[in-house]
Design brief:
The complex is a heterodimer of chains A (about 290) and B (about 70). Chain A is α/β, with parallel strands linked by helices and about 290 residues long. Chain A contains nine helices and eight strands. In chain A, strands 1-2-3-4-5-6-7-8 form an eight-stranded mixed β-sheet. In chain A, helix 4 (about 140-150) links the parallel strand 3 and strand 4. Chain B has about 70 residues and is α+β, with helices and mostly antiparallel strands. Helices cover about 35% and strands about 10% of the residues of chain B. Chain B has two helices and two strands; from the N terminus they run E-E-H-H. In chain B, strand 1 (about 25-30) and strand 2 (about 35-40) form a beta hairpin. In chain B, helix 1 (about 45-50) crosses helix 2. The longest helix of chain B is centred in the last third of the chain and has 14 residues, at about 55-70. The chains are: A alpha/beta (about 290), B alpha+beta (about 70). The interface of A and B includes residues 53, 66, 95, 105 and 108 of A.
Amino acid sequence: MTLGAVAPNRPLVAPARSVLARERLPAAWAALTECRLCAHECGVNRFHGTAGLCHAGARARVFSAQIEVSDEVELIPTFALAFSGCDLRCDFCITGRESWNARAGEAVPAARIAEFARTALARGARTIMFLGGEPTIHLPTALEIVAELPDDATLIWKTNAHGTAAARLLLEDLFDIWVADYKFGNDACAIRLAAVHDYQRVVRENLCWVAGHTRLIVRHLLMPGHVDCCWAPVATWLANELPAVRVNLRGGFWPAWQSKRHPEFGGSVSTEEADRARTIAEQCNLNLIP
Amino acid sequence: MQSQPDPLSAGKPHPDPVPGQAYQHTEILILPEGKVLVHNLTPVMAAILERLNPSAEEIHDRVATAGDRRGTA
């Protein structure tokens, strides 16, 4: 038998996901000494304080862990595990209190979280979803948990798509489905509403990478007054660059957290705006999730 | 004079929840026109909302999915 077609250092059988996660743990923890997991690339040592833009320390804290049914029907019931802290500062964040405060919730050992997750699976949860805040900034803890989970569980990475190539390298092949937000259609709205620069380039780079590696669902939360400046460019880009990707156009905006800072966020999306947004999606022939 | 707060700074420390109790929550917003928006919808809350409006398909799908998997109504 010849193995000539196989690359010399490539294993014939891919290691189990839990093994892969465990192997990457040293590199993931080391990354926190000069953190560049998100595209802010602060470069701070997270073992020595919380000086980065996310204000997160090294050990993740969890503010919610429960079975939920509010996500896409194909993913639910899901055991949703929410880490405190985020690298974005979306004024309309529905979990702003916990997402802007990396000290919210409590530090729960990975083994205990995995135990919660296994119990949820036994009770009928179909998937396990890692979210936040933003899970990317808590990659080492996330890997610790993945290392403790059954290899056949369906894992979902729910992200703001603002991670770096370094983060993606640590995440590759670990999650079955990525659910990624594409929130803003231009950099000016991203800066004004979420204090994030260079948003378009970073998010697009992440979405293209994910689409080439695993299953991707792109979410866009319709915001009042932002159909033309945000949704239309997002829809057009998706149609041109990722035409097959599944898109969830979400209409459940409510003026949460610091929304009052922005006059257009006085209420929810109007029926007229919602209709117009759907028309744009149809014109772009997007693969919309019903 | 106090300086303006840093928009990227953390808020007040959040009290630690009681494991297994404070984690169980759903947020509901009822708009003036009667529309109900829900976040972190749990199977239990989905069942309650369905009883309030059995014709809401979005909620029905979620109750059915949760029930199918759990062997409960």
